[in-house]
Amino acid sequence: MKKTVANLKIGEKAVITHFSDEQMSLKLLEMGCLPGTEIQLRYVAPLGDPICIAVAGYTLSMRLEEAATILVQ
Fold first, then answer.
1. pLDDT the model gives residue 32
2. pLDDT given at position 54
3. Residue 35: strand pairing partners
4. 14-48 pLDDT per residue, tens
5. Of 1, 5, 40, 54, which is the most exposed, with the fewest CB atoms less than 10 Å away?
6. Which residues are CB-contacts of 34 (< 8 A; sequence separation ≥ 6)?
7. SS (H, E, C) the chain
8. What confidence score (pLDDT) does residue 67 get?
9. CA–CA separation, 71 and 45 (whole Å)
């Protein structure tokens, strides 16, 4: 099973390797989620969706569905 941002634990860091959804990747690239960039899961909403990640010096909120398309190592 490939590891995605959706699988991270709060406080865990990872490096973006690629995306599983080409169309979604365009939106994520525009928001600074570039391959090779380190990210950290900061917060998870009480019901598990959305989540907040730290990427490129800022905090970004996204749906779990979007986070599941970002593959990390």
1. 87
2. 97
3. none
4. 999 999 998 889 988 888 889 999 999 999 999 98
5. 1
6. 16, 56
7. CCCEHHHCCCCCEEEEEEECCHHHHHHHHHCCCCCCCEEEEEEECCCCCCEEEEECCEEEEECHHHHCCEEEC
8. 95
9. 21
**Contact indicator for 19, 69 with CB cutoff of 8 Å:** yes
Superfamily per CATH, domain 5-72: Ferrous iron transport protein A (FeoA) (2.30.30.90)
- CA angle, residues 11, 26, 43, in degrees to nearest 5: 20
Domain boundaries, the chain: 5-72
Beta carbons within 10 angstroms of residue 8's beta carbon: 20
Write down the pTM of the prediction.
0.90
